[in-house]
Amino acid sequence: MTSNGVKRPWDVFFEDKMRRIFSAKRVVDIGGGLRINKEKNNRYDASREWLIPLAARIDYKILDKVADYNPDIVGDIHKLPFVDDSEEAIICIAVLEHVEDPALAMREIYRVLKPGGMVFIYVPFLYYYHAHGGYYKDFWRFTKDGLAHLAKDFSLFEIIGVRGPVETLIRLSPLGRWKVMCTLGFMLDKMTGKLESNQVSGYNVFLVK
Predict the structure, then answer these.
(1) Is residue 174 situated within a structural domain?
(2) 147 domain-assigned
(3) Residues 162 and 9 sit within 8 Å (Cβ to Cβ)
(4) Residue 190: inside a domain, yes or no?
(5) What is the pLDDT of residues 155-204, one digit of tens each?
(6) Is residue 181 part of a domain?
(7) Which residues have a Cβ under 8 Å from the Cβ of 82 and sit 6 or more positions away?
(8) How many domains does the chain have?
(9) What pTM was estimated for this model as a whole?
């Protein structure tokens, strides 16, 4: 959110799609990317606490490939431990860049979703290297065209860039430590019409099978 209280468009997109996702009776969060459970994650995001009551009303499960952070389900995204057409909604935030075969992972997500099932994905594009030693490596970056290809079997594909080029550049520099500089970058992107640029930090994607 900017200093004048105006939400960034990708945050509006995120909130809208999360409310749709949490209208399902069961949601599987691959990798725990929402970071709303302190006991089942290696990080916590206080800005997403508004999601906690939504998650409490449904069967919200965290899946991870290792048991280190106490996930509800231990499983590999390359071979999800669910039968075909069984899941209503999946969240996959900042995961696909860390898996060896993101195309296989996407096919697995598609396989296990029910017809009409929903997916929310975030992936980086212009973003710094962020492997986590002993836990995951950092393999990939994704363009809009690449994401459209990975999602070609889905009936609905919606996408929005996260940050314009100026704010992205600031985020990649030491200036990104200061929120005021990121806000300035956002305002410059907005004033110059660069929010529609393809030179972004990453993408929020919403899919329906």
Answers:
(1) no
(2) yes
(3) no
(4) no
(5) 999 999 999 999 999 999 999 999 999 999 999 999 999 999 999 999 99
(6) no
(7) 28, 112
(8) 1
(9) 0.93
In this structure, is the dihedral angle defined by the CA atoms of residues 8, 148, 22 and 65, taken in order, positive or negative?
negative
Tell me the one-letter amino acid at 170. I
Structural domain boundaries enclosing 14: 9-164+198-208
pLDDT category of residue 2 using cuts at 50, 70 and 90: very low
What would the two tokens of residue 7 be? 């939400």
Q: 């009551």: which residue's tokens?
A: 53
DSSP state of 79: B
Write the DSSP string, 117-159.
EEEEEEEESS-----BTTTB-------HHHHHHHTTTSSEEEE
The CATH number of whichever domain residue 91 belongs to comes to 3.40.50.150
Which residues touch 146 (CB under 8 Å, ≥6 apart)? none
Cα separation values, 67 from 26, 31, 40, 64, Å: 21, 11, 9, 7
